[in-house]
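User: Here's a structure from my thesis project, written as structure tokens. My advisor, Dr. K., wants to see whether a designed sequence matches the one we expressed. Can you design one independently, without my sequence as a hint?
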């Protein structure tokens, strides 16, 4: 008798138990992810004098004025407007330049292009703070400190390597026959790129857009130095400044953090379908 024949077949009960175990693990991860939001919500709705544990609900009425104070005293709406401008323009250029740069790297596989991709991956591993001193000196010489265009240039440069990597990986999963058919029909390279390739990049564009937009929105390490004036500060440095000023008023500082999260969550809810499809396509490439 062979070993395979003597091995008992897996029962339906063991398969169901495995599914329940996986479901319990996923539920645990979800709960752990939601705990900080629960603590932030309960803290933001408490009075300044409420010294109850952060886990507990407010002992008095809900204090919605914490959110009003975050907007009026912290300048959160102005900082959100700055972040919308910086994140929006940066994401637009990162998607556009990333797609254009990735197309020849994905379609023309040569040693030179492989080397370019390897260098691009290496750039993704460089910590942002390691280039702070020379970057700050260069921006000072360019008179780009405390300007929107200065920080946008930095955000584009630091996020472009990941965009090129994702676009090139996704393009490799696309069939070349579609582009060849367009060439046979008389389309030139730019028409093929504009009318055939780019429409197929919606999933990975959503992925790059979310990753870049959220990254720029939450970026603090570089923008905290580049944008030091309250008029130009983006949301992360503005919250840090407000938090340092309102350290004795933790509910108002927490309310400011919750306000900053809302646009990112809304954007992700609208684009989550394309976000997953873009990651799967990039992984196949």
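Assistant: Designed independently from the structure alone:
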């Amino acid at each position: 008798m062979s070993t395979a024949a003597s091995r008992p077949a897996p029962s339906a009960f063991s398969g169901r138990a495995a599914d329940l175990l996986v479901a319990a693990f996923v539920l645990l991860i979800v709960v752990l992810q939601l705990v900080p939001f629960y603590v932030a919500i309960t803290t933001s709705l408490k009075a300044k004098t409420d010294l109850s544990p952060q886990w507990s609900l407010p002992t008095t009425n809900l204090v919605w004025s914490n959110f009003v104070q975050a907007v009026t005293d912290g300048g959160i709406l102005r900082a959100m407007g700055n972040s919308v401008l910086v994140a929006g323009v940066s994401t637009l250029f990162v998607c556009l330049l990333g797609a254009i740069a990735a197309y020849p790297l994905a379609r023309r596989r040569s040693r030179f292009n492989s080397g370019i991709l390897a260098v691009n991956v290496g750039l993704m591993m460089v910590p942002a703070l390691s280039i702070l001193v020379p970057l700050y000196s260069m921006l000072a010489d360019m008179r780009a400190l405390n300007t929107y265009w200065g920080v946008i240039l930095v955000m584009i440069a630091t996020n472009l390597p990941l965009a090129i990597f994702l676009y090139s990986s996704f393009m490799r999963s696309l069939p070349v026959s579609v582009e060849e058919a367009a060439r046979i029909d008389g389309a030139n390279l730019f028409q093929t790129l504009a009318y055939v390739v780019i429409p197929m990049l919606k999933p990975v564009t959503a992925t790059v857009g979310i990753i870049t937009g959220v990254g720029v929105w939450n970026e603090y390490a570089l923008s905290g130095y580049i944008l030091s004036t309250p008029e130009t500060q983006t949301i992360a440095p503005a919250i840090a400044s407000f938090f340092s000023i309102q350290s004795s008023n933790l509910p108002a500082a927490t309310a400011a953090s919750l306000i900053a999260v809302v646009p990112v969550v809304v954007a992700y809810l609208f684009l989550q379908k394309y976000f997953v499809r873009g990651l799967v396509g990039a992984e196949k490439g």
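When you compare it with your expressed construct, this may help: The mean pLDDT is 83.
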